[in-house]
Design goal:
- The protein is an alpha+beta fold.
- It has 10 helices and 45 strands.
- It has an 8-stranded parallel sheet with strand order 7-6-5-2-1-10-9-8, with helices on one face. Strands 31, 33, 34, 36, 41, 42, 43 and 45 form an 8-stranded antiparallel sheet that branches.
- β6, α5 and β7 form a beta-alpha-beta unit.
- It starts with 8 loop residues before the first strand and ends with a strand.
């Protein structure tokens, strides 16, 4: 009941909501989009538990018995605060049956015990009760409200699809209720494996039953829904806790049965938010997809738009209403850019398309260069660079431009305009297309006309050893960013490898998933020094071993002041590191790691410059002590006695700007910033004359003026912690 009214709903599962690496902007996007769709209940995936196989730098909610990660729980605080703001109710499970994010077996492993002992061992049960107590009695750092008193939380679940014993379930349900009698409690049992247990129906401390059903279960959906309703009617509310992989027609059938037979609610698996750096978190699953509101043509092979429509229709119908028009989206955020071929923005919740404006002055006049652009690009969850969304093909080399964007709802209602970025100089670039001069192949390749192919055509191969080679033949030696393009297809290679030969050395860029960041976008894969001439090349090799197709389309090469993605075979070169312990390491791809944990560590590279934009992705592996921090340096003297630095202070949860002049430190500015070790942040420091601007993940955080330093080197700095860096770039500003 909600007051005097029966509470019925259509909701969704959001597996990325309570992740320890989540971003507040992504959390808010989740809440905003759900609210605009009539979705008023969200079920999160369980809290994370450290696993023995976790690599260094992995942070979970539970790091050990009684050891709970504060930065991860502050993200949970933010999710609950935003749920209140957008009138969303949350269902939160305590532990998982599986090991996707750690589960009950990992709780047992902390004590050196077997997974089965989790249900019976007194020490393990007490460990878990201590965790339940910590969660329920936690004070939200944003609202100052205890979790057990927070109205945004609809229910706790003991877990997700647990194969628990009746005695364990009753004991934990009673313990939860003893601390928090005001919220609902679900047993989280795996109904498909165990059926609806009599104990769960009869236990006074268990408030609802929530079975899961999917097409792949191969059961008669209508009969099973009727069976579950009959089993629980008059005893406990029934919620369909997960359903998915059904067609739009089957989804409507399921929701129609739920609405007509008195089931309290049904929750689709699952939905995804925008990615913080542009595009979408969007991992397709076999025959169905994670939904993106309001649905896109690229997902309609799995009826994405139609299913979103059905969920929205029944979400309002369960509340006795008809769906209203989609509301006007909020303004998107235009992200800083160094190339007119790689423009990006952080999308708006509920937006289907975008209008892009261009001008040669920040105040206009503006010309619309794209009226129906989309951001429906799939992005890997740990991607740490700006996501390519738009290529301004009409920009004239040698001309500087400003850009802005506005969003449009599914009903065509436009947002206000975004921030303005620029000026961005359009540069002369080299494009080598498949089939043209300076492109060669070995092995077996076929032709494709998939949408998004450059000039309408691309090539593909699944034969191991086949190669595609692009020779840019640059005439002006210098640093160049290398962009590759490939069309989208669900069966493309998940681990493509590019080899880059430049200036007598090789870079190997591996782990390129060609099912993401695709469909006509230029994806930055490396920045290297080209000495010039026909001997240098970029090569894609098909490694085979599956039916996946490696896709060879076009390569774009664009000049840059300096860059290093740390992909060189044999380690890095060109860096000066007077302090710290610097080396290459593997974190998804090859990264630059500083592993000293005491004092400062500094390294710099590239030319001495005055006005420049310096950027890099950073991830801390630990939190070692007072003022543990990591960030960028700019306008540094060769002896590093003077420089500007932008840093994330993980100890104080601040973003800070300092200057050091002849060894004397002065703080120029700081702002609150909730920093989470184990999470990638994209830092950017823009310097132009006296103006110094600091950005995190594309959003401006600090803007100061200072004239103490006019030019110098750029680089990286850490203090008191192990940190990895990726995609370091210096661009003209």
């Amino acid at each position: 009941m909600d007051g005097g009214t029966e509470f019925r709903f259509v909701g969704t599962n959001v597996p990325f909501l309570l992740r320890s690496w989540a971003d507040p902007a992504e959390i808010e996007d989740t809440m905003k989009a759900a609210a605009a769709s009539g979705i008023n209940v969200i079920r999160a995936y369980p809290f994370e538990v450290r696993m023995s196989a976790d690599p260094q730098g992995t942070f979970r909610h539970v790091m050990g018995p009684g050891n709970f990660n504060e930065s991860a729980f502050k993200l949970a605080d933010k999710a609950i605060q935003l749920a209140n703001q957008y009138n969303i109710r949350l269902i939160i499970p305590f532990v998982d049956n599986y090991n996707y994010v750690g589960g009950y077996a990992d709780w047992a492993a902390f004590r050196g015990k077997s997974a089965s002992e989790f249900w019976t061992d007194a020490t393990l049960k007490q460990d878990f009760k201590n965790f339940i107590s910590y969660v329920l009695n936690r004070t939200n750092s944003y609202t100052n409200i205890l979790y057990k008193d927070d109205k945004a939380i609809m229910a706790w679940q003991l877990g997700n699809e647990l194969l628990s014993t009746d005695s364990w379930t009753s004991e934990m349900a009673a313990y939860t209720k003893s601390i928090d009698p005001n919220h609902l409690v679900g047993d989280g049992g795996y109904v498909r494996a165990q059926g609806i247990r009599t104990n769960a129906v009869n236990d006074a401390n268990i408030d609802f039953i929530d079975p899961h059903i999917y097409s792949y279960h191969q059961v008669d959906m209508a009969a099973k829904l009727s069976e579950w309703r009959n089993t629980t009617a008059g005893k406990k509310p029934l919620i369909i806790g997960e359903f998915g992989d059904y067609s739009a027609a089957e989804t409507e059938q399921l929701l129609g049965i739920v609405q007509s037979n008195g089931t309290s609610g049904a929750m689709y698996w699952g939905t995804m938010p925008h990615h913080k750096l542009g595009g979408w978190h969007w991992p397709p699953l076999n025959g169905w997809v994670y939904l993106r509101y309001p649905g896109f043509a690229s997902g309609d092979w799995a009826e994405e738009t139609a299913i979103v429509g059905k969920l929205r229709q029944y979400a309002y119908a369960m509340q006795g209403q008809s769906p209203p028009a989609w509301p006007a989206p909020a303004a998107p955020v235009m992200l800083p850019a160094d190339s007119v071929h790689n423009l990006s923005w952080r999308g708006s919740a509920g937006a289907r398309e975008y209008e892009i404006g261009r001008a040669q002055s920040a105040s206009g006049p503006w010309t619309v260069i794209a009226a129906n652009a989309t951001d429906d690009v799939s992005v890997p969850r740990f991607y740490n660079d700006t996501v390519p969304l738009f290529d301004d093909t009409t920009a004239v080399p040698g001309t500087s431009y400003y850009y802005r964007v506005r969003a449009k709802s599914a009903d065509g209602v436009a947002s206000v305009y975004s921030n303005v970025i620029g000026p961005i100089m359009a540069r002369d670039v080299i494009v080598v297309d498949n089939g043209g001069i300076n492109y060669t192949e070995t092995g077996t390749w076929g032709s494709s006309t998939l949408p998004g192919s450059y000039n309408g055509g691309s090539r593909y191969s699944s034969l191991a050893g086949s190669t595609a080679r692009w020779q840019p033949n640059v005439t002006a030696p210098g640093y160049y960013s290398i962009f590759v393009r490939y069309p989208y297809h669900a069966t493309s290679a998940l681990n493509a490898r590019y080899k880059i030969y430049h200036n007598g050395v090789f870079d190997s860029v591996s782990g390129i998933d060609q099912t993401v960041l695709a469909d006509g976008k230029w994806r930055l894969i490396d920045t290297v020094y080209f000495a010039g001439g026909p001997s240098e090349y970029i090569e894609l090799q098909a490694v085979g071993g599956s039916s996946a197709n490696y896709r060879a389309d076009a390569v774009l090469v664009e000049p840059r002041l300096f860059g290093d993605s740390f992909q060189r075979d044999g380690g890095v070169a060109g860096w000066t590191a007077p302090s710290g312990v610097w080396s290459t390491a593997t974190d998804g791809t090859t990264v630059f790691k500083q592993s000293g944990t005491t004092g400062e560590a500094e390294a710099y590279a590239g030319p001495s410059v005055a006005d420049a934009a310096v950027s890099a992705a950073v991830k801390a592996y630990d939190l070692s002590g007072a003022n543990a921090s990591a960030g960028l340096i700019a306008r540094a003297s060769a002896d590093l006695s003077s420089f500007y630095t932008m840093r994330i202070n993980y100890d104080t949860n601040k973003l800070q700007l300092y200057k050091k002049v002849s060894g004397v430190w002065t703080k120029l500015g700081e702002t609150d910033f909730q920093a989470s070790p184990g999470t990638w942040y994209l830092l950017r420091l823009e310097l132009k004359g006296a103006s110094i601007k600091a950005f995190v993940n594309g959003s401006i955080k600090l803007n100061v003026s200072d004239t103490a330093l006019s030019a110098g080197y750029s680089g990286l700095r850490t203090y008191g912690q192990t940190v990895v860096f990726d995609n370091f770039h210096i661009s003209a500003n």
